[in-house]
């Protein structure tokens, strides 16, 4: 396994008042749904917003900072992630508050729990979050959507901390949402978001959520070690249909496989490495481009170093 130089003493010297957990060479494989990948050079779990801002303000500007959430849409490469990996959690980033038609959610809140909170409050328009296996932070970054709804449809504003430790608020327009993308600055770590629903019938909303759940269970390999939808849908097409037409259903590389149930999903079938999974995805992209002329783009986020890079 990759072992990085320990940065924690230098970080504590620069920010002696940190209250969150700071761990050197923490394995990340257990934090991802694929269950693969190397360690974080440093994993930081801040106690609250002030703690996160203090770290970012004090950190050497040359030290990379990477954010991970629930790990459902993520490949951590086998060589690990250099610098500081931030993972938000706990009450400070994991609560949902209701005020009339508005919901304020921390970015560590699972999308499914946001949908449930909205339903319990009789707020319609957020049931689609039931079909997204990520967190609010990821939804903000990629304009996550499912079953006819997208984050952009219900977001009012988002709050974050930039690389210098400054608190910032972004309006809906400033988020710059497009399909599975936000134009918000890459260095901002989002802490919370304000959503707006519309009054609805709780029973009808819960029935819609049940429909979303049933559709997901029937069509997706949710009980496998997977990372959700692998590729973005090209304009006017479905990624899974292009993958299927290229003969990639069931294709394997090492311990990784294209799901036979839904071929826009890759699965860790049998002790796959991150390199197996990413290599399989690239082979699928090659075959789709060869057979249809379409260039598929990754929806899954890939971070860190290949083993060869980490050992260089």
Automatic annotation (TrEMBL):
Main location: cytoplasm
GO molecular function terms noted in the UniProt entry: UDP-N-acetylmuramate dehydrogenase activity
E.C. designation(s): 1.3.1.98
Origin: domain of life: Bacteria
One matching Pfam family: MurB_C
Pathway annotation from the record: Cell wall biogenesis; peptidoglycan biosynthesis
Entry's family note: Belongs to the MurB family.
Protein name: UDP-N-acetylenolpyruvoylglucosamine reductase
Organism for this UniProt entry: Methylobacterium adhaesivum
Taxonomic lineage: Bacteria, Pseudomonadati, Pseudomonadota, Alphaproteobacteria, Hyphomicrobiales
